[in-house]
Write a structure and sequence with these properties.
This protein is an alpha+beta fold and about 270 residues long. Helix content is about 20%, strand content about 35%. A five-stranded antiparallel beta sheet has the order 1-3-10-11-2, covered by helices on one side. Strands 8-14-13-12 form a four-stranded mixed beta sheet, with no helix packed on it. Strands 4-9-7 form a three-stranded antiparallel beta sheet. It is globular. It starts with 7 loop residues before the first helix and ends with a helix.
Amino acid sequence: MRLSQVHPVFYHLRVQQKRLFRGTANVWQASRFAQTQSLENLPHTCIKHQSLLRRKMGSTDPQLQENKIVNLGIAHKTIDGLIIQPGEIFSFWRRVGNPTAAKGYVEGLQLSKGDVKTGTGGGLCQLGNLLYWMVLHTPLEVIERHHHSFDPFPDERRVLPFGSGASVFYNYIDLRFSNPTEQSFQLRVWLTDEHLKGAVRTGKEWPLSYHIIEKEHRFLRESDKTYRTNEIWREVIDKSAGNKLKEELVIKNFSEVKYSIESLENN
């Protein structure tokens, strides 16, 4: 057992240590992070996506959903319009910063150490999920992405494959992607009454499109525990000819399930 698992004090000290290490590393990469922000749309759309702001999360307090919307309303403004130029890197936390109460963030849902908790700024994973899903449909290259090792809630109005999101926790559990192309890409993110919406735009039409598919989805029982596993694959398609150029494995998930699957098996 790691020392950080023995007592909460050691856990918090470890978190502060990791944040210090990441902050120091960021200083050396500062010039590579995307920072140009413009609300004037680049002309071509690569991908659009939206996710529901309110979704049943087990027996959690519905007020946490409303608090999440407050947090998303603050955080999305730091990203909306960001232009990632050739060679630049996007970092979720370099844009959002520390989600503190002083900035207006409130208590929201957080997933940590195999459990569902609350914390200031909770719910920002939905923004990370949106960005990650959109980036998979572009030539931008994901260089850092994390996902929870457990599945806390049964599917409720889920439209994307299980395990296709991105976990974020300030500042060392980050979502990062780079632009290896010779043209710029722009992130647009906004909220409506019901949805968090986003788009990735670019200066000239990209010749490829991308299709995400799920394979090998199943529930497993091992040592009195239930696990959920699947694979996320990406097809790369030539727009002009319409033919598939390649198919690549993006994610292989294996997560402990924290809810009963009896009702799922009976359906």
